[in-house]
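Exercise 7. Given the encoded structure of a 349-residue chain, write a plausible sequence.
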């Protein structure tokens, strides 16, 4: 029999009965209460109602959406928080508004205004007729004879020129320019200037336009120097009045400015005959040079020295007033445009 340390040893313990894990204290988590009978009943009712109200969409793209919604609802039920299910419904039909029924026997909207509307139309018509009668009477009975104005589009115009009335005799009887009597206004288009174009250039312009005064450039230039007026303005007036004597009365009268009858010049009518009472008459000159000088005298001795008008915007309203059926603004623009073109060295405006 053995002895010693072995005698004091105890028998080995069963390992299966030995716990190798340390005890874990219970966690402090909230225990959810179990669903009551009423909550379970409500959940069942929601499920039944959902099945009754959902619109089944067979074989459509919305089937997958419906299945996903069902899964979502199931998960919500498992949490004890049921949600109102989504409802699928068919698209409502588009409502159609009925058109308004209008009776063909209904009165016109203006029918109720007929009483005063008839009086208004009648009164307006009478007023228009009365105005036309007055206008016609004024035109027929106006003093003086009828003024004939020749208007050839694009080829020049003929204007009734103001020549000073009772002062015309004194102006035309002078020998050369009279002394300046009033202060003058200067400006970019003042006629009082040294020549800005040459006699040769004037001849080129007259020849290019086929003027009957072609070759008279030197005379037009010299008279401008004598009267202290830039001959470019005389040439511009000549162009605007009759296209350098080609059209209108100037072709017969040889008048640069289509002047009305003045002393020391023959007075003829539109037919080239001696002027009779009631005719529209113009001053006629034996030569182009005489017609040039008559225009220079008119501008220098009356418009400049007599009235103190020296620029184109000042002269035109007197020379070709709108009261005589002239377009003053167009006349001014035409003369200034011609001056600008010739100063640039070009012939045709």
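Solution.
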């Amino acid at each position: 029999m053995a002895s010693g340390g072995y005698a004091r040893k105890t028998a080995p313990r069963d390992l299966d009965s030995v716990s190798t894990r340390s005890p874990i204290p219970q966690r402090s988590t909230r225990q959810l209460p179990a669903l009551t009978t009423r909550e379970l009943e409500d959940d069942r009712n929601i499920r039944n109602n959902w099945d009754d109200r959902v619109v089944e969409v067979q074989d459509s793209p919305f089937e997958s959406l419906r299945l996903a919604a069902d899964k979502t609802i199931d998960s919500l039920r498992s949490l004890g928080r049921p949600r109102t299910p989504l409802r699928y419904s068919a698209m409502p039909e588009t409502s159609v508004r009925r058109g308004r029924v209008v009776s063909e026997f209904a009165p016109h909207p203006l029918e109720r205004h007929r009483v005063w509307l008839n009086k208004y139309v009648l009164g307006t018509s009478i007023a228009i007729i009365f105005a036309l009668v007055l206008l016609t009477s004024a035109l027929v009975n106006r003093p003086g004879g009828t003024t004939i104005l020749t208007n050839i589009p694009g080829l020049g115009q003929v204007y009734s020129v103001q020549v000073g009335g009772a002062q015309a005799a004194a102006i035309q009887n002078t020998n050369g320019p009279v002394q300046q009597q009033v202060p003058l206004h200067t400006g970019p288009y003042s006629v009082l200037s040294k020549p800005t174009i040459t006699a040769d250039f004037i001849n080129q312009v007259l020849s290019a336009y086929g003027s009957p005064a072609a070759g008279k450039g030197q005379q037009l230039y010299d008279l401008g120097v004598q009267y202290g007026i830039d001959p470019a303005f005389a040439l511009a007036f000549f162009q605007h009045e009759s296209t350098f004597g080609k059209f209108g009365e100037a072709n017969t009268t040889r008048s640069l400015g289509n002047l009305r009858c003045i002393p020391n010049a023959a007075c003829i009518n539109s037919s080239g005959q001696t002027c009779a009472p009631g005719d529209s008459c113009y001053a006629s000159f034996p030569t182009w040079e005489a017609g040039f000088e008559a225009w220079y005298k008119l501008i220098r001795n009356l418009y400049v020295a007599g009235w103190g008008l020296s620029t184109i915007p000042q002269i035109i309203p007197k020379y070709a007033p709108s009261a005589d059926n002239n377009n003053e603004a167009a006349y001014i623009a035409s003369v200034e445009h011609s001056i600008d073109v010739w100063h640039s060295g070009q012939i045709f405006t």
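Remark. Strands lie at 151-152, 156-157, 266-269, 281-284. Students should compare their own answers with the one above.
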